[in-house]
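Researcher: Quick one. two chains, 328 residues in total.
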Amino acid sequence: MRGERWALRAGEYLVSLACRRLPGRIRQERYQEWLAELPVILRDRDTGPAPLRVVRMLAFAADTLRGTALAPQAYRGAHRGAAATHTAAKSIRWLGTGLLLLGGLLGCALFLLAYEGCIIYQLATGPNLLFSVPLMLVNLGYFAASCIPRWASPRLRWYSMGKIVAGAGLSIRAIASSSGWGHPLLFAIISYCGYAISAACLGMAVVLAMRSLTRLQRAD
Amino acid sequence: MTAPLERVFRIFLDDPAALRYGYDLMKAAGLPSGTLYPLLARLETRGLVASAWETPRHDGERPRRYYHLTGEGIEVARLELAERSAQRSARRQRAPGRRVRPAPADAR
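Model:
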């Protein structure tokens, strides 16, 4: 399975985090036990397609973390009732962490949506240098990063190039309209084209991701 | 007896001689690892479950740990499950109109 090594590494990391909460005498033993289960879950074809198995394996590893956080006394050999008083507080803390993560993800999604909306608004109403220049610079950074072999990604390169063209078009349009130089329509067309390219690249990235998912399922 | 413990006991009692791995138990009982492993650790401390490491069949394969009920474990599990069934039937007789949902292992 493609990416199996990376998935296993992520699982191993989660298991090692879980084992850190355990007393020294049983830590190594539990670590070996849970580590041995990870490849079994990943190769268990009854569970479903490969992406689902990866999720299941990571859920297994993450839940060992929950288990050692909520019930460490169980592994130390104590009776369940002995330290049950702290369990409610720990559950609330875990719930809080989960809600915070969810909030963070939602915040990021909203920020990205607002960012794209802002570009469309600028394209429709009129350019603003304070927006278009940072847009161009940020995407120049992305473009430079996509040229480094370690992070090389043709999708990111095309997407950032599209944004650079859109940002450049918007900037020139802003400068031209404030100084009354050139025809604003020409620069408007340039920025529209840039944004169309980046939108097409984004669509292409989605299609490529879907195709690789289908290929993974077929390989199973 | 908690519902997860009841499920684990039922699975072990399906075939008391069988050796069960943690993941197999998880799948059969429908329990997450964070619930199952602390439960197995408690049972092992009480001497109801014993565990051992398997011998790897291939080079480089990690040995897995398997669990089985001890003699005392089989007795305790049978007693506890019988007690639970008695409690359920008593409850059913007290409220004949209400249906009590069976545990997942009952459905199999």
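Chain A touches chain B at residues 30, 32-37, 39-41, 44, 59-61, 63-68, 70-71, 74-75, 77, 79-80 (CB under 8 Å).
Researcher: Thanks, that's what I needed.
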